[in-house]
């Protein structure tokens, strides 16, 4: 990237000047780290800390999740999710004693519409899922291996996506590291969550570069983090 091409652009969505580069589809491919913050490699939860992203599915036609993560303890729990007792869970990356799986489920009983299982380990992984409500399909890419599935019913959730657990409640928290988490709506980034520290108080959290919002721990205790190596 030629840094001479980086411009200060007035962004109507946040009503201020920001430094960024967008591709031809409007996706932001580079941001300047906001003033007053510094980038770290990951946030780590002991299982008591989590992030409420504030993003609710609400029958969005096409949406996707992208993340890079690493399990710390091989225990049952969810890396992210929208658990709801009244609606379909449109996406939960789930770890259990016997399986490491992405599932789309109905209601509080956890009945899976469909699920994709993976190797259970503590390595660093990348994960992408795209749900197409119009065509009733979803595509999961895990470490560059793609699985294509179909489903029935309507994908909907009445609560926001949380990171480091399966819901805003205390349902299935997990000890893990998250390096980034991105939510897209119809091909456009709705959340781009990057681990950062706030300089004024060394507070760790996830900074949403799309909406210029810093999300801190909504649970108890505090996140730890990893510094970026040279």
Task: Summarize this entry quickly.
The protein has 230 residues and is an all-beta fold. The chain has strands at residues 7-11, 16-22, 28-31, 37-39, 42-45, 51-56, 62-71, 77-81, 88-95, 100-106, 111-118, 124-132, 137-142, 145-150, 160-163, 176-185, 188-198, 203-208, 213-216, 224-226.
How would you describe what is shown here?
- The structure is a single chain.
- Helices cover 0% and strands 55% of the residues.
- The model is unreliable at 1-9 and 106-111 (pLDDT under 50).
- It contains no helices and 20 strands.
- With 230 residues, it is an all-beta fold.
User: Between the first and last Cα atoms, what is the distance in angstroms?
Assistant: 19 Å
Care to count the β-strands?
20
Which percent bin holds the helix content?
under 10%
Report the principal-axis shape: globular
Lay out the secondary structure:
Layout: E1 7-11, E2 16-22, E3 28-31, E4 37-39, E5 42-45, E6 51-56, E7 62-71, E8 77-81, E9 88-95, E10 100-106, E11 111-118, E12 124-132, E13 137-142, E14 145-150, E15 160-163, E16 176-185, E17 188-198, E18 203-208, E19 213-216, E20 224-226
Antiparallel strand pairs: 1-2, 2-3, 4-17, 5-16, 5-20, 6-15, 7-12, 7-16, 8-9, 8-15, 9-10, 10-11, 12-13, 13-14, 16-17, 17-18, 18-19
Highlighted features:
single chain, 230 residues, mainly beta, Jelly Rolls, 2 domains, eleven-stranded antiparallel sheet, six-stranded antiparallel sheet, 0% helix, disordered N terminus
């Amino acid at each position: 990237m030629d840094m001479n091409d980086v411009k200060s652009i007035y962004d109507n969505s946040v009503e201020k000047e920001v430094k960024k580069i967008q591709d031809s589809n409007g996706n932001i491919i580079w941001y300047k780290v906001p003033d007053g913050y510094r980038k770290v490699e990951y946030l780590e939860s002991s299982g008591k800390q989590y992030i409420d992203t504030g993003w609710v599915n609400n029958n969005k036609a096409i949406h996707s999740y992208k993340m890079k993560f690493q399990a710390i303890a091989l225990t049952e729990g969810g890396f992210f999710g929208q658990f709801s007792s009244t609606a379909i869970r449109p996406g939960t990356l789930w770890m259990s004693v016997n399986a490491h799986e992405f599932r789309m489920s109905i209601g509080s009983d956890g009945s899976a519409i469909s699920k994709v299982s993976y190797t259970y380990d503590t390595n660093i992984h990348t994960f992408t899922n795209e749900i197409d409500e119009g065509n009733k399909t979803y595509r999961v890419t895990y470490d560059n291996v793609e699985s294509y599935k179909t489903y029935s019913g309507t994908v909907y959730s009445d609560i926001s996506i949380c990171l480091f657990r399966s819901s805003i409640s205390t349902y299935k928290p997990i000890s893990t590291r998250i390096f980034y988490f991105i939510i897209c709506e119809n091909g456009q980034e709705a959340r781009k969550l990057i681990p950062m520290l706030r300089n004024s108080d060394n507070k760790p959290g996830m900074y949403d570069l799309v909406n210029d919002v810093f999300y801190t721990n909504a649970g108890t205790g505090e996140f730890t983090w990893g510094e970026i190596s040279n």
